[in-house]
Amino acid sequence: MGGNRPYSKDNLEVLRQGIKDESVDLIYPDPPLNSDRTYSVLFRARSGEGSHAQQPALIRPAMPLWDGAPVGTWANLVTVVRTVVAVALGMAAVVGHDARLLVVAYAVYWVGDMLDGWLARRLDQETRLGAIADIVSDRACCAVLVCGLCTVQPALWPALVVFLLQFMVLDCVLSLSFLGWPLLSPNDFHRVSVVVWRLNWSPPAKAINTAGVVLAVATGSLPLAVSVAVAQVAVKAWSAYRVTTLALPGR
After folding, report:
1. Mean pLDDT, all residues of the chain
2. Least confident of 50-59, 63-72, 98-107, 113-122
3. pLDDT tops 90 at residue 13
4. pLDDT at residue 25, rounded to an integer
């Protein structure tokens, strides 16, 4: 009989892919389970009443930003290339007030964003550094491309300002919150909160996050664009609050 082999992965994934069928006699689940609960050590006074001094019984294991995994991967290369190309084309569109060039820049940004994620998963190249690079790249691209939208639809600048502040600040902090848990990227946040994941990093949510205001701006309607931008702020603000409650003891 071989020695023990620990797995630091999702339980169902390990059971389906790493363990042969009919090879386990007993499975013993050991909390904490994915129940959004914090388990605490209970201190009591001599009177038997609960003490105000408490501490968590279990602390989430720390996960380094870089665990020695290769940095020069195909996925990271695509992230770098799509950032450089999209930003360059976006700046050219801003200077030349060129709507068609702006469309090309957005296409490079969106296609590259989907491609680097697909490559990371397909080639097993997902890393925390890669996820952070992707988040930073998205902000670099959007900062320039939204300026391009302002030159094409200057009357809609209020909606674009709301979107840009939300995406550059609120959504950035929210996207980086996965670092508080032993996760590789925000795409794994369903292991912490399915609701927050569905609202922010599920495929439909990610599409709406960057394309919602752009499509609203394309209609030329300021009320519609502002409504979409404000709705996104509300979703991101609630999600950020929810994440803070997940990290607090006793919640």
Report:
1. 83
2. 50-59
3. no
4. 74
Measured CA distances, 242 to 80, 123, 174, 190, 236 (Å): 32, 33, 10, 13, 10
Please name the residue ranges forming H helices in 59-202. 74-96, 99-122, 128-152, 157-165, 171-176, 194-200
55, containing H or E segment: strand 55-56
pLDDT band at 45 (very low <50, low <70, confident <90, very high): low
The SS3 assignment for 44 reads: strand
Residue type, 118: W
Measuring CA to CA, how many Å separate 184 from each of 13, 169, 188, 190?
15, 21, 7, 12
- CA-to-CA dists, residue 105 to 98, 108, 159, 212, angstroms: 11, 5, 20, 17
Distance, in Å, from the CA atom of 37 to the CA atom of 245, rounded to the nearest integer, reads 10
State residue 215's pLDDT score.
84
The residues near 190 (Cβ < 8 Å, ≥ 6 apart) are 197, 198
Give CA–CA dist 84/137, Å, rounded. 9
Backbone angles phi, psi at 76, to 5 degrees: -65, -35
How many other β-carbons are positioned within 10 Å of the β-carbon of residue 157?
Answer: 17
